[in-house]
Design a protein that fits this description.
binds adenosine-5'-triphosphate; 17 helices; Arc Repressor Mutant, subunit A; three-stranded antiparallel beta sheet; 12% strand; Rossmann fold; 3 domains; five-stranded parallel beta sheet; alpha/beta; binds magnesium ion; Helicase, Ruva Protein, domain 3
Length: 395
């Protein structure tokens, strides 16, 4: 086996050697872009799913499609400390400069510049540059009006110059409610005017509820598409296809062991196969190779994928998460967590809220909660073996 090149790609947003199972979703996104290009704008799309299922990879893939179709696009990743206003202003400026070679639309450009100047005040009229600083001047016309004005101006310029605008917004769960409301109102207006702007965003499952809470008509503006672990057939392709390119194959037992260990989650498949590949000695990968690689793959996941989330939590939050696992079943109820923590539901509600804000847990509905990170319960048991002893006693 050629172990010099590893065809597996564990890591955030890394383009996989073989993109499994997302073909229909990408086709549908392409159709929406094409339709929007032809001035029959489609609803924007919100992809939602757990950590590591491949949302960023999917957005990147659709960006490639937008590029091939000659649509204009910008990628925004909202950070936890929220830089959305600055990011969206910069994206609009990039769109503006891509379209600005057509001088005869000066009025529309000027109008857009005015809005951008209001939102992102440090616009330099002299050299057309936007400073990276956020303005601390008050927003004069209200964020929703400014956003609507901005999007409508942008849409009109795009339409006049024969362009189509695609926004790609990742980690959209970190957007603030008033910003989301402004974005939804702007899209609403743009949709009414049939202007060629479409938004693709991706985030944790909680966005379903947030979008609905912020604006009741959000389901008319967005199509919500769940992104889940891969089906078994697709998971097998994600495992075998990258190896095939190097003449390596997996035995059926090896494949079954990988499916069992990874639960068909793309990130876990990449991590495990990457380790199998690194340790491999022959062109035929058998079940023993898989078993040999599991401890290292698990350690890598613990040290990166899981720990980045865990280490940002306070002791109290960790205790809350341990209690969730001690419920013995996920999703679990707040009532159960509260009785395990020996505190009232109202006492532990603020902990739940901060964990949701940090994107570690989410509400699955009916008062139940679960982790946004697949297999996080197993990781927590590895961190704190006392949980397993507790579970052994109650079962
Ligand atoms: N369709 C796929 N087929 C094979 N591997 C994939 C697929 N999608 C994603 N991956 C792999 O899974 C891993 C996680 O992908 P990605 O970062 O896009 O997930 P995510 O949903 O954005 O996670 P997060 O919520 O943490 O940002 C990467 O290592 C990537 O290479
Ligand atoms: Mg991502």
């Amino acid at each position: 086996m050629i172990n010099m090149i590893n065809p597996y790609t564990p890591g955030s947003g890394r383009k996989p050697g073989y993109l499994a199972g997302r073909f229909p979703i990408i086709q549908e996104a392409k159709r929406c872009i094409l339709s929007t290009m032809n001035l029959f704008p489609e609803r924007s799309i919100a992809y939602y799913g757990l950590r590591g299922v491949g949302k960023t990879v999917l957005l990147n893939e659709i960006e490639d499609a937008a590029d091939e179709l000659n649509a204009l696009y910008e990628h925004i990743e909202i950070k936890e400390n929220n830089t959305f206003l600055k990011d969206i202003s910069l994206a609009c400026q990039h769109f503006l400069s891509s379209m600005s070679f057509k001088e005869n639309f000066k009025d529309k450009f000027d109008r857009m510049r005015n809005v951008l100047t209001r939102i992102n005040i440090s616009w330099n009229m002299e050299d057309n540059s936007v400073s990276a600083q956020m303005s601390d001047k008050p927003i004069i016309y209200g964020l929703s009006n400014d956003f609507t004005d901005l999007f409508v101006s942008l849409g009109r310029v795009a339409k006049s110059t024969g362009n189509t605008i695609c926004f790609f917004i990742d980690e959209v769960q970190y957007i603030k409610n008033e910003q989301l409301e402004a974005l939804l109102m702007a899209l609403h207006r743009v949709n009414q005017l049939a202007l060629p702007i479409i938004v693709f965003c991706a985030g944790l499952p909680k966005i379903l509820k947030t979008f609905g809470d912020v604006k009741t008509y959000s389901e008319r503006l967005f199509m919500y598409v769940p992104i889940d672990s891969l089906g078994e057939e697709d998971a097998i392709k994600a495992i075998v296809e990258p190896a095939k390119k190097f003449g390596a194959i997996y035995t059926t037992e090896a494949i079954n062991e990988i499916l069992k260990n990874t639960g068909c989650y793309p990130y876990f498949i990449q991590e495990l196969c990457s380790n199998i590949w690194r340790m491999g000695t022959s062109d035929t990968i058998d079940v023993q190779d898989v078993i040999n690689a599991i401890p290292e793959a698990t350690k890598n996941l613990d040290d990166s994928f899981f720990k980045v989330r865990f280490e940002r939590c306070t002791e109290l939050e960790k205790n809350f998460m341990y209690a969730m696992v001690k419920c013995g079943e996920l999703p679990c109820t707040m009532a159960n967590v509260s009785s395990i923590m020996k505190r009232s539901v109202s006492q532990i509600s603020p902990i739940r809220a901060t964990l949701i804000n940090k994107g570690v847990i989410y509400s699955t509905g009916y008062g139940e909660i679960d982790f946004t990170v697949p297999k996080f319960d197993e990781f927590l048991i590895r961190q704190n073996p006392e949980i397993q002893e507790y579970l052994n006693k109650i079962i």
